[in-house]
Each structure stands twice: as structure tokens, then as C-alpha cells.
Amino acid sequence: MGKRVWMSGLAMVASAILAGTLAAVPASAGSADAAGWRPPFRAKIERISPELAEEMIGVSWHPGCPVPIEDLRLITMNHHGFDGRSHDGELVVHKDVAKNVVKVFRKLYYHKFPIRRMERIEHYGGSDDASMEADNTSAFNCREITGGGGFSVHSYGKAIDINTIENPYVKGDLVLPEAGREYLDREDVHPGMIVDGDIVVRSFAKAGFIWGGHWTSPIDYQHFEVPVDD
């Protein structure tokens, strides 16, 4: 009888230890616990599948665009959110910059730079305005430069816009998106804002991108690009 009681007690201890161990594991790989645990950064670069190409044609890509779909790549990766948790996102970029883009976002992830969301422009019907209003981080979109004219560098898959509300496009009195007016004072730094010399600007510069925040007119705080020859 004594031995059975001892074994029962041992089982209870083991059960308690096991329960405590399981409780310490986050409920999902896309979350962070109270101690700030996050999954490691992960990224995958893939060719554009026939299914994704079908989604893109007539929305973000159309005949006459400066790059063929086969020159683009889909990056699936996680990013640090404003809620402190890890979230999955997607970017479509040119194959020539894909690896460097992953390196940049890996650096931002481990420096806990918050990104609101990272969704392909197809989720917004190809509308840059709708994507900006959603504070979305995106890359490829075959379209004219803002205000009209030639192809935007986004049309080549070599430009990325990050946290568009916290980092608006500014030209004179025009602010895009309109919600970005709250962030025009660039010395009053809020989470998600990009400022000269920070980890975002430095990481992109190391990867060969220039920052629209260094321009004079327009000033495009959200925008990073690798210049292209037309």
C-alpha cells in the first residue's frame, strides 16, 4: 500500500512538471508569451506559381509591364508586429533583389521593428491608395509613379513601401495616405516610423536601396528602391 501511494505521488509530480512545461510553450508559432518569446525569423523565396500568376494578371501585372512575371519571386516570411507578436507576411519582388530583401527583413525582425501588415497588393485590387490606407507594407505593383508619368520602380519589383501611415508620401500640401498627417513631425518618433540613420535606413542602404525620405520633393518616407534604368 505504501509503495502504491509513493508511485501515485511520483506520478502526480511528473504530471505537474509536464503540465508546467507545456504551459510554457506558446499556443502557436505566430505568437509571443508574457516573457516575450517569439519564433525565429523564417523566410522562403519561391518562383511565382501558375495560381499566383493568375491572381496577379490584370491586377498587379498586365501585358506591357517592364518585367515578365517569371522574373518575380514570392517571399513568404514572418515579421514583428505592433502587438509584439510574430506574424506571417508576403512580398513579391524581383529575383535580383529577393535575397537582399530577406536579409533586410531578418535584421528588422531581430531588432523588433514593428510592421503593421505585409500583404500582396492583390488583396487591395492593385490599388496603391487602398494599400496605403491599410498601413500595408508591399512591393511589386506594375503602375505609374504617384501623380502620373512613367513606370514606378514598384513595377520592376525593386521598391518596397513600409508602414505607409507612419511613413507618408508628402508633396507640398498633399499627404498620402491622409492618416499620415499625424506623423508629419518626424522628430516625434512613434513605433513603426522610419527616421534617418535608424536600423531600417541603414539595413536597406547596405542592401543597395535608397530611401525616399532623403528626397526633397516628394518626400516619400515609406519608400525604398533600387534605381533602375528605363
From TrEMBL:
Keywords: Signal. SUPFAM superfamilies: Hedgehog/DD-peptidase (SSF55166). This is M15 family metallopeptidase. InterPro entries: Peptidase_M15C (IPR039561), Zn_M74/Hedgehog-like (IPR009045). Pfam families: Peptidase_M15_4. The keyword Signal applies. Residues 1-29 form the signal peptide. It comes from the Bacteria. Residues 147-226 form the Peptidase M15C domain.
